[in-house]
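Sequence, please.
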């Protein structure tokens, strides 16, 4: 009996340690926050085709390096802003020697007008849980929706209404933390925001109906983009059909 108790105790320690490791903040979050500090401020918000063309011109790949010029992506919109920070984070990790990616993967990160659900950018930019779906599909990080677990530097998809998909009203941001204002809980984040563009914003927690956080742990897994379908059918469909928050969570692995 004592042996059984000992085995159960050891098993509980292993499970507890695994759970703590899963909830630990990613050191990559610090790199993400550092990249935000290098981004411009303002520049106005626009989700027009012209803004997408400017976004494409803001990043290019040359002589084995990403060159990201966010000032060129102005006016800007939310998913483009967070994706530029994501790309800058990848390049910063490569520059430090902490990340190695082959040419095909680096080329796949480029923005070339991909449709929603197509490739890396097309997944990130899609309606619904685009970023979280990418994280789950490639295994580059963990998704969750508990504000108690959120850490500054987590990518975050805000849903301002219960709708997901064709009728949704959402926002792609980077979480910066919680704060109190006049006794109310406020959520701070960085993105390209209406109407001023790049910058920080703080909104009452009560305005957010749902939120999905995505924490970057394993960017080397981006190389798996060659193993998954070119187009994610679920994300591609969300321009036309309505989904649900429950379905979004299921598609993102939690």
């Amino acid at each position: 009996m004592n042996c059984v108790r000992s085995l159960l105790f050891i098993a509980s320690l292993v499970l507890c340690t695994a759970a703590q490791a899963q909830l630990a903040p990613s050191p990559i979050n610090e790199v993400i926050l550092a990249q935000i500090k290098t981004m411009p401020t303002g520049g106005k918000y626009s989700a027009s085709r012209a803004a997408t063309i400017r976004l494409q011109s803001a990043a290019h790949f040359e002589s084995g390096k990403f060159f990201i010029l966010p000032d060129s992506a102005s006016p800007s919109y939310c998913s483009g802003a967070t994706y530029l920070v994501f790309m800058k984070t990848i390049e910063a990790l490569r520059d430090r020697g902490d990340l190695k990616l082959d040419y095909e993967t680096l080329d796949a990160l480029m923005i070339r007008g991909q449709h929603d659900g197509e490739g890396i950018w097309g997944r990130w930019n899609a309606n619904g849980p685009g970023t979280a779906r990418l994280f789950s599909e490639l295994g580059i990080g963990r998704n969750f929706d508990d504000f108690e677990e959120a850490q500054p530097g987590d990518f975050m998809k805000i849903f301002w209404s219960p709708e997901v998909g064709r009728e949704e009203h959402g926002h792609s941001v980077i979480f910066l933390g919680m704060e109190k204002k006049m006794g109310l809980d406020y959520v701070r984040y960085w993105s390209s925001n209406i109407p001023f563009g790049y910058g920080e914003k703080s909104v009452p927690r009560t305005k957010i109906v749902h939120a999905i956080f995505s924490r970057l742990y394993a960017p080397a897994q981006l190389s798996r983009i060659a193993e998954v379908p070119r187009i994610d059918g679920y994300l591609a469909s969300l321009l036309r059909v309505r989904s649900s928050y429950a379905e979004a969570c299921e598609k993102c692995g939690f």
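The first helix runs from residue 2 to 23.
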